[in-house]
Here is the input.
Amino acid sequence: MKITKNFIDNIIKDELNWDLSSLNNELKKLDKLSGCKYEMIDTHIHLVDFNQKTTWLKNLLVQMDKANIKAWVIFGLSVVKIWEEFESRRPEYYLDDDNACYYYWNTDAIVAREYLSLSKKDQKRFFPLMCWFNPMDLNSVEHIIQTYKTFPWVFYGIWEVFYRHDDLTHMTYGEPPRMNTLATKKLFEFISEYDLPLCIHNNITAPGVSDYPKFLHELETVIREYPKARLVLCHCWASRRLKTPYYTKMMARLFREYPNLYADFAWVVFDDIIALNEKSMNDWVDLTEEFNDRIMIWSDVLWNAFEEIWLINSRFNIFLDKLTPKTRENICVNNAINIYTKSKNKVEKNKKRVYPKLEDFKI
Here is the structure.
């Protein structure tokens, strides 16, 4: 029997009872989902998962080209999930069971090894950042300096430090991390000294408290003391099950008061808060236009979602379409370039900030 296109079409129509015209229309819609419409620097991807597994940067390079991603800010995960002997299956995610996580020193070594395995040309498409240390440990800055010494000319800054992180906070060994501590002040002093970017995950409130920003004071206690610290609020303070009123007004106030404060629109903040409805979308568009030099777009995926990055980033299109060309270019590309290229090799060269001396001021 000769199989022709008409024969296949008849089988689909008669046997499977599919509407060919509707099917073709749906397939055309899928063709348009080829990643973000606009070239971007994706500034948030975990090269490993909670078991510290990865499929390597060479695979990520292929996915970058498919998803219209110019460059990527990469880092590991500061914690690893325990596989207890009474669990029949290995947990892949920190919420897969009730067992704990612990800080994992080797995650930065995995990132450095992958980065150094690339050609010089491919290395230019990545900004590696370090993340392993316990933010409640007064030794954390010493650990960071040691990592710079062990892998010189690799890391651009520090990313993503877990402070308040819903369930993960309670599942990680040690004291629950918070920002208003002496250890955090030492960290802020270090990044201020070298003008390094620091990204933190710190929920704006607790899952059971949605009527006010419970943890806002912890941030402001530190950032007021270190106004030169270049701080990026990961996910714009949002996390699972967190909603607070007047979100855009709160962010606008923070942006106005703290010139070195940045934020990203990634993960649940986009799906659950920004894209909630037309009004919320327009409110966040207005905020982005006003502070277009302080906001970035991120995917926030783990290694096992590299192949899905084109779909994950395509959801930003509806938001990016509403922005002016200048704002869109800033949050997709320019802001990331301004933050990361300025921080390269500062620690290795001992290139500290130079502050004016008192006698330089004329009264």
